[in-house]
Amino acid sequence: MPVLQVYYAQGTLAGDRKGALAQSLTDVLLTMEGGAKTPGGLAFASVLFTEVPQGDWWVGGHVDATYVAPPGKFLVRVSIPEGYMSQGQKSEVHAMVNAAFIDVLGDASDPRQGASVLVIIEEIIEGNWGARGRTISLASIADSVGLSKSGERFKWVKAYFAAKARQFAAAGYPADTGGLLPDETRTAKPAA
Predict the structure, then answer these.
(1) In terms of DSSP bridges, do strands 134-136 and 46-52 run parallel, antiparallel, or are they unpaired?
(2) Deepest in the core among 29, 131, 133, 135, taking most CB within 10 A?
(3) What distances in angstroms separate CA 99 from CA 7, 24, 186, one per listed residue?
(4) Which residues of 139-155 are buried (b: 16+ CB within 10 A; e: fewer)?
(5) What's the predicted TM-score (pTM) here?
């Protein structure tokens, strides 16, 4: 259920370029979801654009392009469920998002391309996603997008949350604190 929020300087994205970038970033989202070109995966693939007035975006103390590399100033906030990606997978997302901008807006032969496309990955704590007035767990997101719970990706997710459950148990967190997959328990014993 990743969401991409793209902030861009006023006048940077015209209709056709914005549409092409939205499609390219949607492809990134679907790749992040393990190739989830399912109705559920497509329904979760949200790209939001926010135009920032020129006078409101300063880089290096300037509102102009003095310190801005082509194709321009962009900030991309990628919201993902906590525990959904390893560091290697996050690095792949950084590269895929940057490549999408360069493919649509840039000139790949310019060595500075993409240096001003900032990508921030934010993990949303398990239990904090919601839709239809209900909390959605990472396990239910996996079901919706068609991610196999017996595959390597979900094995990593389960290992992450099992370790987190042990941390919570060792620290004496209350059982209803939240932040764990529904099938993880707070009765997990800390690792010896």
Answers:
(1) unpaired
(2) 29
(3) 17, 9, 41
(4) bbbbebbebeeeeebbe
(5) 0.86
